[in-house]
UniProtKB/TrEMBL annotation:
EC number per UniProt: 2.7.13.3
Major place of residence: membrane
Boundaries of every Histidine kinase domain copy: 184-394
Keyword Protein biosynthesis listed: no
Protein name according to UniProt: Sensor-like histidine kinase SenX3
Substrates-to-products reaction catalysed: ATP + protein L-histidine = ADP + protein N-phospho-L-histidine
Record keywords, A-Z: ATP-binding, Kinase, Membrane, Nucleotide-binding, Phosphoprotein, Transferase, Transmembrane, Transmembrane helix, Two-component regulatory system
InterPro entries per record: BphY/WalK/GraS-like (IPR050351), HATPase_C_sf (IPR036890), HATPase_dom (IPR003594), His_kinase_dom (IPR005467), HisK_dim/P_dom (IPR003661), HisK_dim/P_sf (IPR036097), Sig_transdc_His_kin-like_C (IPR004358)
Keyword Transmembrane: yes
Source superkingdom: Bacteria
GO molecular function: ATP binding; phosphorelay response regulator activity; phosphorelay sensor kinase activity; protein kinase activator activity
Transmembrane segments: 15-40
């Protein structure tokens, strides 16, 4: 069974939280391991330097500690055969004056040595410290850190998954309750809306003249409301977007204008459609686009005073797009609010406390979901224009 978008989003959020926790824990373990390795390396080098300094100070008369070789111009200690490559003749030049000390680390015969060259009273001594056991200690530490990193990563993934599920559970419950509410409300509204639509149809058939026209608008309005309820119910049940189909935007515009004609007449606002007699076909969801046009006209009627006008214009600016404009002669808005009016419950920038509500924000979401754009332009007292642009579809 295919998961709905909300469930997929929650699943992605759980894994994202788990991954973030795992990354943080892994980084902490890696940083701690790096610090431990640096401390061990520093202490090993310091210990080697102290051992060599003490060996040179005691001289060949004393047996040097294990892993240490001491060379002077006269003899070397211990007396056994030294490793090949020792001593290095060129190092004597690094300490030309009495009291000079030179320390370095270099590989000799496949092994790394710490070397101390010291000029003591004109006698140059070379002491070599073999780092075999130090290298083994560092390798053991690295192996332990790798094991610790793997165990920490596994523990972090497990704990992160548990914490992520706990953190997301309230959101999942809220989404589930929201979907249940929408489904229940839509289901409960369906029956009375169906009865209302049926009775309006019967009255429209019996009426004549102006009453028939008004009742026909009532029938259309109840049908549109029923379509909205059906969309909500399908969305709550399936969670997927409705399938796109060919939509004649010009017909939707004329129907939307006709539906608002009575309200516009009562408000003494002239409402008209300006279009060429050509198809304006786009891909979309008819009910959603119808709600977009209704919201734009509702916004225009709400801000246009008596005696004003509202024009719905349709055109084809190029071969790829269909453009629809809703232009009114209402109160307008500051140009600085051209983008903010599409935000949910945004307030105007002119200090009058004006709120733009939710309708225009939903309009932009629907238009964006159709792959289109919507823009607003206006000036205070000079009306507003909303320009909707959608991809054009081939009527064939």
């Amino acid at each position: 069974m295919k998961a709905d978008p909300e469930e997929r989003a929650l699943r992605r959020a759980r894994w994202a939280i788990t991954a973030q926790i795992a990354v943080v824990v892994s980084l902490l373990v890696a940083v701690a391991g790096g610090i431990a390795y640096a401390i061990l390396l520093s202490r090993q080098h310091a210990e080697a330097d102290r051992t060599l300094a003490r060996t040179v100070e005691l001289g060949p008369a004393a047996t040097p500690p294990g892993c240490v070789w001491l060379f002077t111009p006269a003899l070397h200690a211990p007396a056994s055969t030294p490793p090949a490559g020792m001593p290095i003749a060129g190092l004597a030049a690094t300490v030309p004056a009495p009291g000079d000390v030179h320390t370095e680390r270099r590989p000799i015969g496949g092994m790394t040595y710490t070397i101390r060259v010291e000029n003591r009273g004109g006698v140059v001594s070379q002491a070599y410290f073999e780092e075999l056991y130090q290298i083994q200690d560092r390798s053991s530490l690295v192996s332990g850190l790798v094991v610790a990193e793997v165990l920490a990563l596994l523990a972090a993934v497990l704990c992160g998954r548990v914490l992520a599920c706990r953190a997301i559970r309230p959101l999942a419950d809220a989404l589930r309750r929201q979907r249940t509410f929408v489904a229940d409300a839509s289901h409960e509204l369906r029956a009375p809306l169906t009865r209302l639509h049926t009775r309006a149809q019967l009255l429209a058939r019996r009426a004549s003249g102006r009453d028939a026209d008004d009742l026909e608008q009532l029938v259309r309005g109840t049908r549109e409301l029923g379509e909205v309820v059906e969309d909500l119910l399908l969305s709550a049940q399936a969670g997927d977007r409705p399938e796109f189909e060919l939509v004649e935007l010009g017909v939707l515009a004329e129907e939307a204008v006709a539906a608002e004609a009575v309200r516009a007449g009562e408000s003494q606002v002239r409402l008209a459609v300006s279009r060429e007699r050509r198809p304006y076909v786009v891909q979309g969801v008819p009910t959603a686009l119808r709600r977009v046009l209704s919201a734009l006209l509702d916004n225009a009627l709400g801000h246009t005073p008596p005696g004003g006008s509202i024009e719905v214009w349709l055109g084809v600016p190029d071969e790829r797009h269909v453009e629809l404009r809703v232009r009114d002669t209402g109160v307008g808005f500051p140009s600085a609010d051209a983008d903010r009016i599409f935000e949910r419950f945004a307030r105007g920038s002119d200090g009058d406390g004006r709120r733009f509500g939710l309708g225009l924000a939903l309009v932009r979401e629907v238009v964006t979901g159709h792959g289109g754009t919507i823009a607003a332009a206006g000036r205070p007292g000079a009306g507003a224009t909303f320009t909707l642009r959608l991809l054009r579809a081939d009527p064939a």
